[in-house]
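Worked Example 4.2. Consider the chain below.
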Amino acid sequence: MIQLETGAARLSVSPHGAEVTAWSVADLPLLWRPEPAIWAETAPILFPVVGWTKNSKMRVGSKTYPLGLHGFARHREFEILEQAAAVTRLRLQSDAETRRLYPFDFLLTVEHRLTEESFATRLIVENIGAGAMPYACGVHPGFRWPFAGGDVSDYVVRFDATENPEVPMIAPGGLIGKSTRHLPLEQNVLPLSGALFENDALCFLNAKSRGLRFEAPNGAAIRLETQDFPHLALWCRPGAGFLCLEAWTGMSDPADFSGELFAKPSMRALGPGSAATHAVTYSYLAPPARR
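Applying the procedure from the previous section yields the following structure tokens:
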């Protein structure tokens, strides 16, 4: 386990999946602690797809590959490139096993950087193959809910901009359905409850906001800011004690999708020798001082 430390902030990172496994500020733990019977992860890195593929398979040309939920990066061991007091960089490179699932040559570098109030994650995707490479990536950290006391129903998510209250229904198999559901969004504020997640994740596709705040009733907040992540998502298992604040470049297959990977909605394509960078910052905002 890699341990980063800056002032009173601590961040733990596992080389398995390059996953952040713990984050605390001034001894306040902010991330979900895995419970295998509920959700066995904390903050998985999603690559080379985001969400579900139909029947856990995808097609490239005439060949089908067994590429399932959120891809495979979260299940692989990363090489540690750098480990300092407040930053670590890890890398995953394509090999025979990844090509069995995804027939492209790539480098995926994950950098985690800690400050006294925040941690930032950068994903650098590189195409080291001879042809175009389709990909999607994302971050999926689960935060304690509640993280600062109070009742879960008194927490809200406040988006930077006014979002569309109509979000896709999640179809069987985790796919994006044709119909939508209406959320109780009051301009840019979403009151939270477990019932909101009975149909799975809330997917804000092509969101207007580049960030949001997960706010506690005492005024404390966890702030998410994104760079080149067009989609935002919220997910939990109702009553389990966590809320995921996610940022994606891609999404699950639509329920009626039958095309190949290059045609999957919201996939990016990198040319040979090209690279792309996607980044997020999560900050802890302390409650206002009482007078």
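The longest strand covers residues 275-285. The domain at 2-285 is CATH 2.70.98.10 (Beta-galactosidase; Chain A, domain 5). Compare this with Example 4.1 before moving on.
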